[in-house]
Amino acid sequence: MDKSLLKESRKHGNPIYPVSFYDITCPPDAPLLDLHWHDELELLVVTEGSAVFRVDMSDYELKTGEAIFVNSGVLHSGNVAGGQPCSFTAVVFHASLFSSGSIDHLYERYMAPLLDRTYEVPVHLRRGTDDELALLTLLDQIIEANRNLQLASELTIKGNLYCIASLLLNLGGPAIRTKQEQESYRMDRLKSVIEFIEQNYNEPISLQQLASHARMSESYFCRFFKKVTTKSPIEYMNSYRVQLAANRLRQSDAKIMEVALDVGFNSLSYFNTLFRQRFGCTPRQYRSRIEGRG
User: Fold this and answer.
1) What is the pLDDT of residues 1-60, one digit of tens each?
2) Which residue from 95, 133, 136, 187 puts its CA 20 to 30 A from 245's CA?
3) Could you report how far apart the first and last alpha carbons of the chain are, in Å?
4) Stated pTM of the model
């Protein structure tokens, strides 16, 4: 999974079977999962180590064997907790998996309220209750079925996802609508700002431009942006540019100054400073490490 993407453009699975699996391992000195969102739902289970995941504006510390559920369109990110590497498996699936393609009473009754967030389910899934234990066991079975790829493993995966959806709904309840509408409106504006950064990162972007795009005052925009992302707008934008630069250093032999200019930095020394803060080494050292591994 390309962790640099914020609004993921990739399709997870295919229209007939919209399910994909991703295994990620990350050292303690690197970001585990950059801020992003997608239209699909996601179940993510930590398989080694521990991590802190931010979903919407809440942080969840996960130990090995625990999971999070991420609803469609929800911003989420993650960082390794502690000094040990962390691994996780993500199951990403589209809600169309639960629809028959025609008028589907069960989809409208159960899945639609979940997707429009008029019905809330827990994000952090521990092994504390019988339903949570059953859900996590089903998730383990899904991951195992995908690895083994036996005959009709897709049926096992789809059937278990139906059971997981049922258990999730039993663990949840109706949302507080007024609060949800307010948060949704602000989050939509924030996501539009992130899309603006994605589309214009190689051009000069001012704080005033970003605040104007969000239709907020600069002071309120900065406070809200940091509340959601834990970074200031400028810190976030530079982090995104540095991540893109790292991708280009891995995938091309372009000169470092050329890479810096391509992702929006006009000062090589400033680019080097931010890159070292993010990856613990200079861009040149980073490229040498990648080439050494190859």
Assistant:
1) 333 444 455 556 577 889 999 999 988 766 788 888 899 999 999 999 999 999 988 999
2) 187
3) 19
4) 0.78
